[in-house]
Structures are given as structure tokens and as C-alpha cells.
Specification:
Structural class: alpha+beta
Largest sheet: 8 strands, antiparallel, barrel
Radius of gyration: 44 Å
Strand order of the largest sheet: 1-2-3-4-5-6-7-8
Helix content: 40-55%
Strand content: 25-35%
Number of strands: 8
Distance between the termini: 151 Å
Length: 208
């Protein structure tokens, strides 16, 4: 009787150990699977992040490249335009000096007027600076910084192409001095619009 009881107990112990091993094995497998899944998920997320990051960079690079191409193209066009324009020789003879508002001649008294100072005259361009003059104090202040205008068209006109202003210069033959420029009209800058500026100090072409 005792022998049968021991056998049953032994079998139960064996079965308990067997089922315990199965449970432990399953637990280990589940743990390994979860760990593996987490790792794979982490790698997948990292890859996603990296791909997204790289894609973003690529897009930015492409946008920058297209922008750079556009800017380069615009700059090239601008440079080509300037270069082509600069090749036009002036057909008029412009002198360095002061061209002042011709309304100041005679008995006209102007409280304030503008002067255009021409300098650095070359075959295809010239520099100009615009001053506002207070007639009472004779004080002058610059209202348009020194810039360069180029001859355009058939060489009898000139223009300045700036960021905020485009000025157009024409040279009417009011004193029959052509091709010498004794008279100048400038449009594109409000204080000068509709006025004529003269230089009566050119040798051989003085007038009052």
C-alpha cells in the first residue's frame, strides 16, 4: 500500500516538473518574442525617423538647389542685361559738374531746389548724385546717393536701374548745343519729375 502511494507521489512530482518546464519555456519564449518585437519596432521607428530626416533634407536641398538655380539665373540675366547695356556708347557729350533747376534763372527765387552733380563720365556710363538745396542758407543735403547710370537705346538717353528706383535721363537740345549736354531731364524720382536741369558753365556753351 505504501509502495503504491510512493509511486503516485513520484508520478505527480514528475508531472509537476514537466508542466513547470513547459510554463517556463513558454514564458521565456514570450519574453524573447516581446523583446525581439520591441527591438524590431525600435529599429523600424529609427529607420522611419532616419528616412524622414533624409527625405526632409533632400527636399530642403532640392528646394535650395532650385532656389539657387533661380537666383543664379536671375543674377545671370541681370548681369547680362547690365553688361549688354553698359556696352552702349553715349552719343551725347556729358560734362562733369552741377546741373541745377532752370527755374532759378532770372527773377525767380526758389526757396528750395535740387541739383544733380555729374561725375566720373565714361564712354558708356556716368555717376550722379542728387542734392536738395536750401536757397536761404545754401545748405545742401544728399537726397539720392551717388549711383551709376548707363547709356541706353541709341546712346542719346541713359538710365539707372536700382533696387527701389528706375531713373530715366533725357537730354533735350534746349540751348542748341547738341551733342553737348547743357540740359537734362530726369524722371522716376519725385523731386525731379517734370523739371529741367541745366549746366551753364560748359566752356563755349555758357548762357544766363
Amino acid at each position: 500500500m505504501k509502495s503504491k502511494f510512493l509511486k503516485k507521489k513520484f508520478i505527480l512530482v514528475i508531472l509537476s516538473l514537466f508542466f513547470a518546464n513547459i510554463l517556463i519555456g513558454c514564458s521565456i519564449n514570450n519574453s524573447t518574442t516581446d523583446s525581439s518585437n520591441k527591438e524590431n519596432s525600435s529599429i523600424s521607428q529609427d529607420e522611419k525617423k532616419e528616412t524622414s530626416k533624409d527625405s526632409s533634407k533632400e527636399v530642403n536641398s532640392t528646394e535650395k538647389l532650385e532656389k539657387d538655380k533661380s537666383n543664379t539665373s536671375a543674377q545671370t540675366t541681370k548681369n547680362n542685361t547690365s553688361s549688354q547695356t553698359a556696352k552702349i556708347s553715349g552719343k551725347v557729350k556729358l560734362y562733369e559738374g552741377i546741373y541745377f533747376d532752370d527755374r532759378g534763372f532770372g527773377d525767380n527765387v526758389l526757396e528750395s531746389f535740387c541739383e544733380v552733380v555729374i561725375s566720373n563720365v565714361k564712354d558708356n556710363s556716368f555717376d550722379f548724385t542728387i542734392y536738395q538745396v536750401d536757397a536761404k542758407t545754401e545748405n545742401k543735403k544728399v537726397i539720392f546717393l551717388t549711383n551709376t547710370a548707363v547709356f541706353i537705346g541709341d546712346g542719346t538717353k541713359a538710365a539707372f536701374y536700382g533696387k527701389n528706383y528706375t531713373l530715366n535721363f533725357t537730354f533735350p537740345n534746349n540751348h542748341r548745343a547738341y551733342p553737348v549736354v547743357t540740359d537734362m531731364q530726369i524722371s522716376g524720382f519725385e523731386p525731379l519729375n517734370g523739371k529741367t536741369y541745366v549746366n551753364n558753365g560748359i566752356p563755349g556753351h555758357e548762357f544766363s
